[in-house]
């Protein structure tokens, strides 16, 4: 608590004139005599009037500045804290930017000793009269495998969730697809895993379109074969020649059971 002389000094510095009653107020505490003492009038010197005779280099009149009372604000504190922090690269924390979720649908089938992970371009399961399904049956027949493959489970559609904060980027999609295929391999091993279509090649075989018609060795999945999508084979029939050559090289893998 401020004593009276200091309080009056603050009021004088802020040019606040205290109000005092002229007469004694009823039921009021008696005033101190030194408070009622008349104050010496303060003479204010008139401001100088600029005239033609006043030199241009004359100093401007000195004004009395009021003391500034700094009030701390949260925004000011935060700005001062940020300015005080080091700006070295080691001290800057970058927010991880999640990659956009890929979109695809895959169907897993089994034909003899082989598993087939094939892209569903439309996102819907195969129908018996679909041209792409007819082409798949032709490929299986040419490879010496049963042309009526067994459908395993529901199609794998990605992303799993349309909303939410769950990471559904490419790495999460790869882990999910490989885990799904590994679970089926534990139940029944496969001599060769067919990866048909770019999503199957990318998220199960960790390869790209440049690896079409090649044999892959995927950790946890074993031997795999990268194939173009069925729709791409129908749109570009010239791809069937290189596919047939790759098939002839790989056929001994799934035919060794017959021997």
Can you give me a brief rundown of this structure?
With 259 residues, the protein is α/β, with parallel strands linked by helices.
Structure, described:
The chain has 259 residues and is an alpha/beta fold. The termini are far apart. A six-stranded mixed beta sheet has the order 3-1-2-4-6-5, sandwiched between helices. The chain contains seven helices and six strands. The longest helix is centred in the last third of the chain and has 18 residues. The protein has a domain of 152 residues: Uracil-DNA glycosylase-like domain (Uracil-DNA Glycosylase, subunit E), CATH 3.40.470.10. The chain is 31% helix and 15% strand.
Shape: rod-shaped
- Weakly predicted, low-confidence segments: 52-56, 88-95
At the fourth level of CATH, the homologous superfamily of the domain at 104-255 is: Uracil-DNA glycosylase-like domain
Mean pLDDT: 80
Number of helices: 7
The radius of gyration over CA amounts to: 43 Å
Structural classification: alpha/beta
One letter per element, helices H and strands E, the order comes to HHEEHEHEHEEHH
Report the sheet with the most strands, covering strand number, pairing sense and barrel closure.
6 strands, mixed
**Using DSSP, what is the number of strands?**
6
């Amino acid at each position: 608590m401020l004593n009276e002389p200091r309080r009056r000094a603050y009021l004088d510095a802020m040019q606040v004139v205290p109000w005092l009653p002229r007469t004694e107020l009823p039921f009021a505490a008696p005033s101190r005599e030194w408070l009622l003492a008349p104050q010496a009038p303060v003479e204010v010197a008139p401001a100088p009037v600029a005239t033609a005779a006043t030199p241009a280099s004359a100093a401007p009149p000195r004004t009395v500045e009021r003391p500034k009372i700094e009030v701390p604000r949260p925004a000011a504190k935060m700005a001062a804290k940020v300015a005080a922090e080091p700006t070295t690269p080691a001290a800057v924390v970058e927010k991880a930017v999640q990659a956009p979720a890929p979109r695809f649908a895959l169907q897993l089938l089994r034909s003899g000793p082989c598993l087939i992970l094939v892209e569903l371009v439309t996102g819907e399961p195969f129908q018996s009269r679909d041209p792409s399904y007819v082409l798949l049956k032709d490929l299986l027949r040419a490879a010496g495998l049963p042309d009526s493959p067994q459908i395993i489970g529901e199609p794998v559609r990605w992303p799993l969730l349309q909303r939410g904060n769950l990471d559904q980027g490419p790495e999460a999609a790869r882990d999910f697809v490989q885990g799904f295929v590994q679970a089926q391999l534990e139940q029944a091993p496969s001599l060769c895993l067919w990866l048909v279509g770019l999503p199957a090649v990318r998220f199960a075989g960790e390869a790209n379109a440049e690896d079409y018609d090649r044999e892959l060795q995927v950790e946890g999945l074993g031997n795999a074969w990268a194939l173009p999508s069925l729709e791409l084979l129908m749109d570009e029939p010239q791809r069937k020649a290189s596919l047939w050559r790759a098939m002839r090289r790989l056929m001994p893998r799934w035919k060794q059971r017959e021997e």
